[in-house]
Amino acid sequence: MNTLHPSLTRRDMISRGAQAVAAGFLAPAFAETKAATSETLVQQLYGSMDEAQRKTLCFAWSDPRRLKVDNNWHITPQKIKDVLKADQQELVREIFDKLHSDEYKAEVWRQFDQDNKSSGGFGSASIALFGEPGTSQFEFVLTGRHCTRRCDGDSEKGVAFGGPIFYGHAAQGFNEKPDHPGNAYWYQAKRANEVFQALDGKQRDLALLGESRDEDGNDTVKLTGKTKGLEGIPLTELSADQKDLVKKVIADLLKPFRQSEREESMKYIEAGGFDNLHMAFFKNQDVGKDGVWDVWQIEGPNMVWFFRGDPHVH
Fold it and tell me: Can you give the residue range of the structural domain that contains 84?
């Protein structure tokens, strides 16, 4: 989980530097010939809503819920299955689907369906719309267990994904085994541990810390804007080969998301200075005490991505 938001984002989150530049809205005549995007589908969903649905699901751009993030929450108390018609629910599924890469969306769906099975599946998620789709200022947000996703057509300037995002997975129950069997996102931690294994003793002393930050909604991924004094080892202390490994970690973090999100995220990361990033690992939350670090983060002036794999992946 996750890239960047001007003042937030989570480990699986991303903070400020990256924001999706989604193709804006198309006039109805062109919508038939152009491929649909999440943004055009949000406009279609909005247009299909009756007055009661809009009163329940549509809010002002300034509503603070628009930029909230958490590991298990509902942005509105009404679930998709209870407030939307069947065809509208299918639109929401397609909006969510198109926010993810063709390469990885099957795994995203597997995670979402598995984590939300006991509460009623996809229909148990909730959505909200802020502003008015079709204008220069709107945002769609979907939430559920281990899921906060947004699309905004780049309404929130200078921010990735429209704001902080969240992903996670409890693949084998609440307390996962050390190797996190079946977890959709554990591959990211395996790649991050390749970085740690490539560090020498002095570098490991800088990178390996005791306790991680608390997981507390938006504050977890609040940006400091700092280039120095962040937790962990600054990338200025890494060799070219080691930096290439960090770039592979970032590529893996962005892998589940659509191309426009990945490109925009990298734009903001690079604008903040790749060498200004810091990477930290936390030894006190080592599941199985096997020296494979389950909790780690990458942070810089324009991003925070916090990965907590204890007791399962957040």
Answer: 1-314
- DSSP code per residue over 261-309: HHHHHHHHHHHT-GGG-EEEEEGGG-GGGSS--SEEEEEETTEEEEEE-
Cβ pair 61, 137 in contact under 8 A: yes
Number of domains, the chain? 1
Nearest CA to 310 out of 208, 178, 167 is that of 178
Sheet with 58-59, edge to edge strand ranges? 58-59, 126-131, 138-144, 147-151, 166-167
Ramachandran angles phi, psi of 305, nearest 5°: -125, 110
Count the neighbouring beta carbons within 10 Å of the beta carbon of residue 251: 13
pLDDT tens readout for residues 42-54: 999 999 999 999 9
- 8 Å CB contact between 189 and 287: no
How far apart, in whole angstroms, are the C-alpha atoms of residue 8 and residue 18? 11
Strands 295-300, 278-282: parallel, antiparallel or unpaired by DSSP?
antiparallel
**What share of the chain in percent tops pLDDT 90?**
82
Torsion angle (degrees, nearest 10) of CA 229, 286, 104, 165 = -50
